[in-house]
């Protein structure tokens, strides 16, 4: 069964009471489509890789339209959970309370997928009180810091006392997963420990630490890097150590994105499960797997254990699903095999990547692979180790079937 999405729309920087200083949608340049799996075969460009990737809504979507879409989706497809999401801050959606009232008629638990609390004004937590009465079972709350001055300066939060009061009330009645983009010299170090201590007292379920990305190779694909001049984000190794350290110090579960989950060992927990790896289908043909710099060593470790037919080739981008055609242009073709499988969600047009990967005269078969091969910290924080392993095994089985069908 799937989640039912209640998309309320909203524009970054407008329908959230102003940009946070670190917002990835600040200063977005251009309207050129990136290319993606939804594009028609004949040309690059579709609604998803042109507008949706830039969160280009016209504003919040009227209540009756959101409710109508959810009721229709539930009638025809069913579901287990309703997830309210959008491009703005959900606490700024003026019909949020009425929306949750309307959704209670379906009888499913409701998740608030993203809020920073910037739209709340009641310092006694009254907005959260009203919402949790309407089947709110889970909330994703961007905290950044519990220091009021830092929230004002870095989040443009004009009512930090109200934001944090409502966060506390959510914690008392639902599962709250806090999130914090970690910026070196701003909200790491002592401030991060103070924030985590406050969140522990509130009773959060878990916390997702998000490495701040400031440059193209770290994941900025909308022409707006750097977001903040003079800030060098944590290295991948330093960030992994930070996540591990915070997880040890506090009672709630801590994961990181783009990595890592200290309790489960993801991404790619399966790499240490030799018995499960032996259960995977035998790899019968050769292929090159294109991926990001973070996934590459994990995938190499897996394939080194089960086959000598696979070449894992990282591009100059940390995260595989944020690979663009510019990354492919810089890729050396020296060791690329005649079948290439690239990440399913990569922002490239199929015809363009095929042309680039055959530019040396070798006729290669270029295949878009599975959407994901593992669970990053945003997913795994609410999953068990067994669920993560099951998902990874299923994804690798799909990938191996593609290798065996299309490979040389």
Descriptive account of the structure:
The chain has 408 residues and is an alpha/beta fold. The chain folds into two domains: 3-257, Alpha-Beta Barrel (TIM Barrel); 269-406, Rossmann fold (3-Layer(aba) Sandwich). The chain is 35% helix and 15% strand. The strands form two sheets. Strands 1-2-3-4-5-6-7 form a seven-stranded parallel β-sheet. Helix 2 (63-77) packs parallel to helix 3 and helix 4 (126-132) packs parallel to helix 6 (160-173). The protein is globular. The model has no long low-confidence stretch (mean pLDDT 94).
Short description:
By secondary structure, the chain is of the alpha/beta class.
Uncertain residue segments: none
Mean pLDDT: 94
CATH topology descriptor of the largest domain: TIM Barrel
Order of helices and strands: EHHEHEHEHHEHEHEHEHEHEHEHH
Topology, pairings included?
Layout: E1 3-7, H1 47-50, H2 63-77, E2 81-85, H3 96-103, E3 110-115, H4 126-132, E4 136-142, H5 148-155, H6 160-173, E5 175-182, H7 189-202, E6 206-211, H8 236-249, E7 253-257, H9 274-279, E8 287-291, H10 295-306, E9 310-314, H11 325-329, E10 339-342, H12 350-357, E11 365-368, H13 377-380, H14 385-406
Helix pairs in contact: 2-3, 4-6
List keywords for this structure.
four-stranded parallel β-sheet; 2 domains; seven-stranded parallel β-sheet; 408 residues; TIM Barrel; alpha/beta; single chain
